[in-house]
Design brief:
Largest interface: A-B, 41 and 34 residues
Low-confidence stretches of chain B: none
Strand order of the largest sheet of chain A: 1-2-3-4
CATH topology of the largest domain in chain A: Cytochrome-c3 Hydrogenase, chain B
Number of strands of chain A: 9
Order of helices and strands of chain B: HEEHEEEEHEEE
CATH architecture of chain B: 2-Layer Sandwich
Low-confidence stretches of chain A: 1-11
Strand content of chain A: 5-15%
Structural class of chain B: alpha/beta
Number of helices of chain A: 16
CATH topology of chain B: Beta Polymerase, domain 2
Order of helices and strands of chain A: HEEEEHHHHHEEHHHHHHEEEHHHH
Radius of gyration of chain A: 21 Å
Shape of chain A: globular
Structural class of chain A: alpha+beta
Oligomer: heterodimer
Distance between the termini of chain B: 70 Å
Helix content of chain A: 40-55%
CATH architecture of the largest domain in chain A: Orthogonal Bundle
Mean pLDDT of chain B: 87
Strand content of chain B: 25-35%
Number of domains of chain A: 2
Largest sheet of chain A: 4 strands, antiparallel
Distance between the termini of chain A: 26 Å
Mean pLDDT of chain A: 85
CATH superfamily of the largest domain in chain A: Cytochrome-c3 Hydrogenase, chain B
Number of strands of chain B: 9
Number of domains of chain B: 1
Number of helices of chain B: 3
Helix content of chain B: 10-25%
Chain lengths: 385, 168
Amino acid sequence: MVAESRETPNQVRVTADEGREELMLNMGPHHPSTHGVLRFILHTDGEVMRKAVPDVGYLHRGIEKLAERNTYAGFVPFTDRINYLEPIFANHGYVMAVERLLGVQVPPRAEMLRVITSELNRLASHYVTLGSVAMDIGAYTPFVYLLREREHINDLMEALTGQRLTFNYLRIGGVAFDATDEWLKQVEQFVTGFEPIIDEFDSLISGNEIFVKRLVNVAPISAADAVGFGLVGPNLRASGVDWDLRRDQPYSAYPELQFDVPLGKGKLGTLGDCHDRFLVRVLEMRQSCRILKQALRKLPSGDIRAKVTRIKPAAAETYAAVEGARGELGYYVVADGTDKPYRVKVRSGSFASLSIVEHVSPGLMIADLVALIATLDTLAPEMDR
Amino acid sequence: MTPVEIKDRLVQVVGEPVEWQAGPADAAFVVAPEKWYAAALALRDLPELDFAFLRTLCGVDRPAANCIEVVAHLFSYKHKHAFVLKTRVGRQAPRLATVSSVWPAANWHERETYDLFGVSFDGHPDLRRLLLPEDWVGHPLCKDYQEPPSYQGIPMMRPARPAMETKG
């Protein structure tokens, strides 16, 4: 069935089935709401879907194979390309795995700078997500507003790292560049100025009647399903599972910082519905601001990079994960004693959140699928790698 | 529980491991392929282990040992402990029982492992390639994989860049 539709991409197939008709429709690979190149094969009965089968791999670049051909340090820039919306996290998971294999101690200033850039990156990523949710269900303006705010973060990151999108900021043993006092002041100004914008966004969008009707009670995911399918991060927390790697398996400088972990509560509808997934991200942005303020105050002085001379870990393997904007972003790194990784496996949040779509889709309207994939925050490059 | 305690509990169910990799970093329990499913089920269902979360399931090609390792990274939200379960299948026609009925998440991870390593999962509900096109030849993450010169008439290599002219 799949192979047939590939030959004629826009075919509509009608089959008679107990007096009802099943339409097979293609959504994507190029579709405004698929967030990257991603295709769904929809089996529908009128407006209602019988199931939606994701067809992925359009953005498969073979990053895991590339890892085996590059040195440990040489692979770091590739990790940025795994997810262009959260490159800091993609860097972080990988360098943490290698640091663990090498037994390197990262200086405290570098750890705090990692946290600051991580949280800025989380804000930037959530802007795009929340803006896209609104855009996908018909409200274009919030997207533009949030992208304007994201530009501030891009400017800040450009000042620090020289890049606006793929920062390549983390190094094995530390970070690439030190932050100046001027830069830190700019970040503080940004955070202070940004908090009211979250409130404004929240009051304009989160309770908007049309918005609420499109999201509440749509595609709820139970906690058992969320865990079973391996959902992570905000998607998992929206289903009520109280888990955050930053708090529960602290890494980097997070143990020194105070923050809450927002959970889905089914505030307006069912626990784990699209609105919960949206709201958890809004609440998370407030916590990111809180973390940023503390981190800026607590930033210690000192080195930004440990002395790592030879990156040639002994044969061993480890799994290291960070709490990215799309949840647990993990790296399974196998070392064999040479200067290149023997195997790198990337475990991403988008992979899990796409794999649950087929399970959740039966009975949804086609338009609800758009809300589902937007609030699951799937990003095709992170899925395909 | 520590990995060693989990190992001791698992040994009571599936017997001694083929190998216990105490590792310098992460420890791993290597089980025989015919006990793969039983071990997975025990890890999920024993209340004191409760590994409800399958982080990843992936392959590692080991031509030197003539095997493909299938590795499952597990985590329990309830007990906050992690565990690594491994098995080894032969490189010629690798087969293994599916665990997609144990963890729904395994469905796609197994499809990916089939796609990139050629491991065939018996009993899998929908074993198709996940990332690569269905008519792709070979399994790219195998160490001896040779990239084909072209796919569907599209060349896979760029034409060689003309040599830079040097002066003097």
